[in-house]
Amino acid sequence: MNKKSVVLLSALALSVALAGCSGGGEPPAAAPAKQTAVSVEVGKVTRGSIEAEAGVVGTLAPNKSVQVAPKINGTIQSINLKIGQTVSKGQVLFTLDQKDIRDSIKQSQESYNVALANLKQAQSSSEQSVQQSESGVDQSKAALVQQQSSIDQAQNSIKDAESSLRDAQNNLNRTQQLFAAGAVSQTELEQAQTTARQAQSALDNAKLTLSTAQSSLESAQTTHQNSLKSLELARKSAGVDVAQASVEQSRSALETARSQLVDATVKAPMSGTISAVAGNVGQIVSSQSSVVTIANTNPILVKVNLSESEMMNVKVGSSVTVGIPSVEKRINAKVTAINSVMDQELKAYPVEISIENPSNTLKAGMVANVYIQSGAAEGLLIPQAAVSEKAGEKFVYIIEGTVAKQVKIQTGEESAEKVEVTEGLSEGQQIVVKGASMLTDGAQVTVVKK
């Protein structure tokens, strides 16, 4: 460097120094920039056990599901249903075309009226036949009584003839003895013999009369029995029976047709939500084809399969916690049913848990995590997402007002979702579970809801 350059540099340095000293003092310092609050989501330190928090995966299912099909074959006339629609028991779901059914009712009604008229006519004819048969029974009964009286008279005549015959025979015996002794004449003997013969003849006639009367009685009895049978047949007139059967048959056909008219309007057998609609207007359906499916999801069931070891901690009525990840809810519930027979394919026992679902927020098919209280020791638990790690040390951010404070922690057991904290936190403290990577100790935060 030459001498001239050195002089110029020296002058320049002096000028700069003088400029710095002029102006009456130092220039004002720039104002510090305002710190921006970091948006974070928070959770709370809870008490529980890692073993209980492991959870068993299950699915939500309706407590009852019904496939609705018509009772009769037909063509859908009207249907206005949508999946997810709520229906009440007894509400009309769809209707079938009713024209053919109404025509059938009209024809059945006409047939029924004709059958009633035929029955009335048959009954009238039967009444006349019954009256005639009853008159025949009365006549045969009178004849029977008369023949019985004739028998009684004949029996009395026989008694009288037998008595007369005994007297005549005794008189003949005495007269014969007297005649032999010469005490009576031949004429008196002949008179005695004639009287005895007449008495014997009278007895024979009386017996013949009795025999005739008995034959007449038997004939009268036969006639009376036939009259009774005729009356019975008249009262059980085949014509009336046939007419009555025709009435019953036509009445059954009419009732069937009327029942089909009722069945043409298909109503909901239970309250619930429409989960499937498989029919359209104009579609032909039968009793074998489901048109609508209704599911009742209040309460809704959680269906899980538990291993043998898990079954040791569960019974009907046991309290469990059900987590629904899709709606980020945890619900306390109770076990309502346990199958005592193992599912051989899954090698597990099917278990059902009932959850009240009045607003139908929970949907069938959602995944559920069932947390079973196993009796393991409890500790403080926080979500895995809340834990940060640096240089081998673990820490979380707790919320104090609007400030995030970094806190070092000691951890114990861990699961896929939870971490046990053995030192550094207290139950109920708010901790950052989302947004921690954007924080530093003392950072301003804005808590946002999930």
TrEMBL record:
UniProt keyword annotation of Signal present: yes
Give TM segment ranges. Answer: none
Q: Which residues form the signal peptide?
A: 1-19
User: Which Gene3D superfamilies has this protein been placed in?
Assistant: 2.40.30.170, 2.40.420.20, 2.40.50.100, Helix hairpin bin
Indicate the segments forming the Multidrug resistance protein MdtA-like alpha-helical hairpin domain, all copies: 152-218
Q: Where is the CusB-like beta-barrel domain?
A: 302-374
UniProt keyword list: Signal
What segments bear the compositional bias annotation Polar residues? 145-158
Q: Where is this region: Disordered?
A: 125-163
Instruction: List, as start-end ranges, the regions of compositional bias called Low complexity.
Output: 125-140
Q: Output the InterPro entries linked to this UniProt entry.
A: Beta-barrel_RND_2, MdtA-like_BSH, MdtA-like_HH, RND_pump_MFP, YknX-like_C
* Short name of any one Pfam family annotated for the protein: Beta-barrel_RND_2
Q: Where is the YknX-like C-terminal permuted SH3-like domain?
A: 380-447
The UniProt record lists the Multidrug resistance protein MdtA-like barrel-sandwich hybrid domain at: 65-290
Family statement drawn from the similarity comment of this UniProt entry: Belongs to the membrane fusion protein (MFP) (TC 8.A.1) family.
Name listed for the protein in its UniProt record? Efflux RND transporter periplasmic adaptor subunit
Native species of this protein? Paenibacillus medicaginis
